[in-house]
């Protein structure tokens, strides 16, 4: 089942108008706190980086549009709380997400371990077609590197993940990783109703979880 | 179910033009689909059947939608039945909710919880009533399938509201879309209501989602919407959802905290739990929960400082300074020891007895410092309250979309609270904190309502969906909060949980209420200031006003005194009457002596007049009749008076005469008329007394008088009318009693004129007497008092007269003197001049005053 919300594309088909489909994707950012999730997003969306985080923009929810060859991809980026104690809440965030970026800090081995956990959980609990990318952030601090590139690359290959080392500070690979995700995302023409129905079904599947939360 | 679905689709297609019927049909979808199809095939007509208007009970009366479609009588019966059933059910059914012991300690100080409880209770009763209602209605349906259960009555308001809003929001969309949307909403509502009875909430939710899906499909396939942008479509689905769910939300127990679920109990449990966890606020902060929460810490400080009655803004400034310190501390990896003194310093500055509390919290302070303080922007306590108020307002929004927007706004405020680029790392803790502090009413119900009945895609995507997810996370975190999730010692945690909520909550409750109160107080002080300014202005104005009033009073008093000094005449007049009569008796023979040609009628009138007239008039008349020079008479009056008192006035009078001299030849020629002229003069004087007439008018009046003199007696009638008019005008000016009298005089006189032919009228002795006296006597005093200096001498006369002549006798004496003098008047030329003067000065008004008595005479003559 294709989870992409192709509602817009479907809507424009009868119109016969633009060749460029508009696909909207929900992308979840996962990762230990302070690995630079929001910096990454801010760099991607606003092209900004603030070392001391002086900016006043809320980075929790952002959207960015990418133009591929024949499609326009609109990312809805959902940031999540990285603290360990909120870990159990993550499913509510990545429910219905078509893509996820798991971020770790190359200067911190623990974050990489957490990232692995995230990936495992995503693979187990998220929608099966979810596109997962692994991002080793703070590559500008290579001098303090604790996580070797090869190690991460190997892990990514093993699990079928996209992998890049990024730097929100230098903007290295930031756009690239999002582009890669956009390319990998299925932009197939699943019926509009089907997409929504799928989302709905997913919602139902998660319903017991949420209700259990509330009880 | 699928069959039903099919039917629904069919209906949406078919019944675009007749959804009124459709609604009726929809009720039977589930019961017996066959009948329904048959009907669908039969009916489609726009006409409303008469039976639809009749009472649902089948009696011949017409029903009323206000009475659920019954006639008044049947409705009452129905109500009674309901109430009875309700009583029975409430008596028999034990209520598990009420039985359930309330474990949590209630917070007297937390108004929110109270409020929530009230709402819960309300909704409970509502729901009870409604469920009973539902039962009875379904029973009815079973018995008489044609009866429409009341749930299906959808108020036309929705229709109208949708129409209106559609026109405003989707003015570009074609008309059919509007209609389709409304049809959809109607189907939707009726279907949901119908299904609500025999479906679980999840099934219902499923169904609702399918409805949304249908609408989306419709939008994708509708020929009217092919060119419409997707954003508009989203707006449209939101629009539909809003209207449908707003109505359904209003129905108790259908979609919002449905009767079959435990939402309500969960609500209560949640709010209790939040109350219990209210202590977490502090601990929470203090431990690592969030960097962001320094800002939320502020109210705490404020609460503390506020209890010390410190000014809020001062506090904030103080705390902002503290914040920097905190920052430094954090950079240093904070030694608690250094920070505690800070707190104590603050508290010491506040001189508050809360220092104890601060000491209590000091251990918290350590943890507090361990987390990142730097994020805190201290001025941001406002967003917290905004966020809280938004969260509280969420319960009030009827539609899922509305609730979502509330959540979104609340979360934006929370983001602002977090300061710097708030990532989810900051947002979630802050949101949890906010929820803990806000303890929104019916939180679980609201969340469930939105998750179940909001358009699923809206929830899965978009900013609203994101923030709502955050809220759900916060709620579930609170629910599952354990010692571990707070990084706390288990025993400590239990200890806190066992602690009565009031201890933990009081500070925060105090802080909240305090901040609210302070804000209110600020507003009120501003208002008070405005009011003070206004009051000051008012005072100034009042002072001015009172000053004006005083001066005015003084002036008035002065004037009144003046007037009083000049016009104490009234009493005298009546006393004079008898004497006049005596005089008249004396005068009668003289009148008989009249040599002039007079008509008998006139003579009679004259006699009557004489009876009533003053001695002056009599004397004048006598003079005229005797052909003695009339001026002399007038002269005689002053002269005699003058002789009596002082001679100074005489000179002045002569002066006046000289000034006012007008060719007196005419009056001289015709003595009768001259006499009239004399009268005119006198009346003129009166007029002048009454009203300060400008001297400009005099010449005009003089002319008139002159003309009158020339005119034949017949012309007096018009003259009178004029005089009346003019008399009225002067009356306005003078407030004295004399004026009134004059008026009366005139009218009477006019009456005399008109009635001159009729002898009976003159019989009224009283009115004419008074009248005649008034004109003659009054004139003197006012004349003097007012503008003309020349006349003032007259006034003196009059005053003297009045004062001296308190008794009538004096007046009489004067008259006698008149008579005596009149015969023996030595001043020929002077008298003439005077006459002329008087004539000149005589205004039409004055003429009118006097002439009226005289007119009959003239006419007679």
UniProtKB/TrEMBL annotation, chain A:
Catalytic reaction(s) noted: GTP + H2O = GDP + phosphate + H(+)
Superkingdom classification of source: Eukaryota
GO molecular function, one term: G protein activity
Region of interest: Disordered: 192-215
Enzyme class: hydrolase
SUPFAM superfamilies noted in UniProt: P-loop containing nucleoside triphosphate hydrolases
E.C. number: 3.6.5.2
SMART domains (alphabetical): RAB, RAN, RAS, RHO
Coiled coil segments of this chain: none
InterPro entries: P-loop_NTPase, Small_GTP-bd, Small_GTPase
Gene Ontology BP annotations: protein transport
One GO CC term, this protein: early endosome
Compartments where located: Early endosome
Alphabetically ordered keywords of this record: Endosome, GTP-binding, Hydrolase, Lipoprotein, Nucleotide-binding, Prenylation, Protein transport, Transport
Entry-linked Pfam families: Ras (PF00071)
Signal peptide span: none
Family: Belongs to the small GTPase superfamily. Rab family.
Protein name: small monomeric GTPase
Gene: LOC112049326
Automatic annotation (TrEMBL), chain B:
The protein, known as: Rab5 GDP/GTP exchange factor isoform X1
Transmembrane domains' residue ranges: 12-29
Compositional bias ranges of the Low complexity kind: 843-861
Source species of the chain: Bicyclus anynana (Squinting bush brown butterfly)
Encoding gene (name): LOC112054875
InterPro entries: DUF5601, VPS9, Vps9-like, VPS9_dom_sf, Znf_A20
Compositionally biased residues, Basic and acidic residues: 136-151, 758-776
Spans annotated as Disordered: 85-104, 134-154, 751-784, 822-861
Keywords on record: Coiled coil, Membrane, Metal-binding, Transmembrane, Transmembrane helix, Zinc, Zinc-finger
């Amino acid at each position: 089942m294709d989870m992409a919300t192709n509602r817009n594309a479907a809507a424009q088909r009868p119109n016969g108008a633009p060749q460029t489909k508009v696909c909207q994707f929900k992308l979840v950012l996962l990762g230990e706190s302070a690995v630079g999730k929001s910096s990454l997003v801010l760099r991607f969306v606003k092209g900004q980086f603030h070392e001391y985080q002086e900016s006043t923009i809320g980075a929790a929810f952002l959207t960015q549009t990418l133009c591929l060859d024949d499609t326009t991809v609109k990312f809805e980026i959902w940031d999540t709380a990285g603290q360990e104690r909120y870990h159990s809440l993550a499913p509510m965030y990545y429910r219905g997400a078509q893509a996820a970026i798991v971020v770790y800090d190359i200067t911190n081995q623990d974050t990489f371990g957490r990232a692995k956990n995230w990936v495992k959980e995503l693979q187990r609990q998220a929608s099966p077609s979810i596109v997962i990318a692994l991002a080793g952030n703070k590559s500008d601090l290579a001098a303090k590197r604790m996580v070797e590139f090869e190690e991460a690359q190997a892990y990514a290959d093993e699990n079928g993940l996209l992998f890049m080392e990024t730097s929100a500070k230098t903007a290295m690979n930031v756009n690239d990783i999002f582009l890669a995700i956009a390319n990998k995302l299925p932009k197939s023409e699943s019926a509009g109703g089907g997409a929504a129905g799928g989302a709905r079904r997913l919602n139902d599947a998660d319903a017991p979880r949420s209700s259990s939360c509330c009880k | 179910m699928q069959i039903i679905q099919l039917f629904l689709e069919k209906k949406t297609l078919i019944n675009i033009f007749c959804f009124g019927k459709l609604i009726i049909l929809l009720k039977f979808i589930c019961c017996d689909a066959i009948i329904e199809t048959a009907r669908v095939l039969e009916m489609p007509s726009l006409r409303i059947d008469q039976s639809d208007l009749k009472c649902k009970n089948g009696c011949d009366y017409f029903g009323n939608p206000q009475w659920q479609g019954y006639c008044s009588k049947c409705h009452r019966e129905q109500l009674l039945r309901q109430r009875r059933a309700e009583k029975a059910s409430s008596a028999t059914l034990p209520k598990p909710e009420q039985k359930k012991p309330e474990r949590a300690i209630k917070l007297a100080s937390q108004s929110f919880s109270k409020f929530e409880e009230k709402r819960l209770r309300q909704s409970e009763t509502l729901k009870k009533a409604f469920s009973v209602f539902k039962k009875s209605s379904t029973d009815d349906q079973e018995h008489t399938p044609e009866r429409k259960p009341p749930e299906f009555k959808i108020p036309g308001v929705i229709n109208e509201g949708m129409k209106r809003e559609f026109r405003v929001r989707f003015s570009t969309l074609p008309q059919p879309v509007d209609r389709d949307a409304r049809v959809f909403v109607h189907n939707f509502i009726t279907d949901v209501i119908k299904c609500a009875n025999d479906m679980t909430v999840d099934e219902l939710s499923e169904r609702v989602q399918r409805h949304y899906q249908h609408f989306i499909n419709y939008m994708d396939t509708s020929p009217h919407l092919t060119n419409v942008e997707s954003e508009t479509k989203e707006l449209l689905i939101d629009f539909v959802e809003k209207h449908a769910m707003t109505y359904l939300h209003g129905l108790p127990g259908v979609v919002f905290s449905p009767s079959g679920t435990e939402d309500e109990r969960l609500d209560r449990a949640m709010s209790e739990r939040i109350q219990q966890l209210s202590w977490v606020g502090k601990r929470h902060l203090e431990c690592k929960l969030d960097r962001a929460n320094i800002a939320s810490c502020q109210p705490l400080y404020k609460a503390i400082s506020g209890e010390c009655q410190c000014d809020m803004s001062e506090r904030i400034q103080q705390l902002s300074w503290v914040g920097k310190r905190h920052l430094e501390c954090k950079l240093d990896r904070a030694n608690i020891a250094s920070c505690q003194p800070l707190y104590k310093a603050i508290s010491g500055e506040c001189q508050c007895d809360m220092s104890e509390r601060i000491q209590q919290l000091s251990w918290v302070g350590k943890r507090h410092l361990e987390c990142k303080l730097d994020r805190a922007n201290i001025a941001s306590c406002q967003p917290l309250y905004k966020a809280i108020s938004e969260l509280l307002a969420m319960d009030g929004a009827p539609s899922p979309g509305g609730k979502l927007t509330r959540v979104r706004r609340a979360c934006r405020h929370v983001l602002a609270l977090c300061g710097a680029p708030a990532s989810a790392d900051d947002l979630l803790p802050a949101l949890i904190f906010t929820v803990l502090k806000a303890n929104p009413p019916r939180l679980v119900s609201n969340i469930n309502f939105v998750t179940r009945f909001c358009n699923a895609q809206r929830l899965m995507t978009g900013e609203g969906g994101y923030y709502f997810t955050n809220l759900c996370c916060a709620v579930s975190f609170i629910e599952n909060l354990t010692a571990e999730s707070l990084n706390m010692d288990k025993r400590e945690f239990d200890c806190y949980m066992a602690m009565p909520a009031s201890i933990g909550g009081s500070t925060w409750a105090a802080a909240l209420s305090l901040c609210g109160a302070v804000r209110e107080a600020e507003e009120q002080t501003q208002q008070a200031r405005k009011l003070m300014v206004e009051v000051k202005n008012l005072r100034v104005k009042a002072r001015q006003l009172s000053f004006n009033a005083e001066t005015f009073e003084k002036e008035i008093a002065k004037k009144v005194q003046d007037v009083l000094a000049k016009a104490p005449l009234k009493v005298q007049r009546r006393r004079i009457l008898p004497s006049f009569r005596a005089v008249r008796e004396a005068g009668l023979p003289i009148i008989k002596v009249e040599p002039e040609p007079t008509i008998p009628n006139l003579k009679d009138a004259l006699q009557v007049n004489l009876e009533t007239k003053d001695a002056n008039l009599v004397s004048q008349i006598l003079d005229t009749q005797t052909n003695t020079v009339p001026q002399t008479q007038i002269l005689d009056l002053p002269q005699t008076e003058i002789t009596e008192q002082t001679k100074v006035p005489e000179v002045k009078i002569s002066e006046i005469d000289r000034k006012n001299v007008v060719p007196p030849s005419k009056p001289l020629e015709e003595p009768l008329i001259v006499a009239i002229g004399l009268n005119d003069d006198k009346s003129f004087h009166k007029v002048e007394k009454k009203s300060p007439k400008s001297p400009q008018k005099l010449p005009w009046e003089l002319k008139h008088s002159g003309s009158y003199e020339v005119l034949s007696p017949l012309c007096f009638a018009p003259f009178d009318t004029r005089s009346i008019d003019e008399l009225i005008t002067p009356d306005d000016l003078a407030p004295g009693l004399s004026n009134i009298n004059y008026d009366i005089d005139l009218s009477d006189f006019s009456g005399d004129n008109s009635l001159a032919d009729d002898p009976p009228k003159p019989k009224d002795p009283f009115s004419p007497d008074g009248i005649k006296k008034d004109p003659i006597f009054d004139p003197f005093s006012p004349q003097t008092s007012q503008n003309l200096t020349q006349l003032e001498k007259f006034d003196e006369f009059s005053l003297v007269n009045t004062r001296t002549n308190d008794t009538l006798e004096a007046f009489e004496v004067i008259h006698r003197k008149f008579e005596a003098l009149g015969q023996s008047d030595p001043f020929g030329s002077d008298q003439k001049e005077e006459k002329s003067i008087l004539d000149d000065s005589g205004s039409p008004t004055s003429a009118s005053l006097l002439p009226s008595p005289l007119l009959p005479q003239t006419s007679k003559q």
